[in-house]
Design goal:
single chain, 134 residues, alpha+beta, 4-stranded mixed β-sheet, 6 helices
Amino acid sequence: MTQQPYTIEVFYDGECPLCMREIRMMSWLDRHSRLRLTDISAVGFDAQAATGQSWDTLMAEIHGRLPDGTLVVGLEVFRRMYSAVGLGFLMAPTRWPGVRRVSEAAYTRFARDRLKLTGRCSDNACALPAPGLR
């Protein structure tokens, strides 16, 4: 039996506790190696070389890459990630009119505020270390 190639490569922030909880769960559920998981906070990660995007762009919201090289962003990454592990039905409602708009807005807000929500801000500032200084 030939192994299927990965379905999506997910570029995630390994220093984000909520993100890591999700990634650990997805990794555990990924019985057929359909996910390729890449930590953008890892020392030596070069965002530009890996994705053609800046590190700040990758930090702003989750990104994924399909096997054909197409980049997907935001909630679409989660839809494809859940589908890859056989749980696409959980994300299916986020494609429905109305629900899609609300779920996209909720994710956008989370992405914007995730540093605050995960305790990674100090003195009312959410500055991240520059890539390579991590």
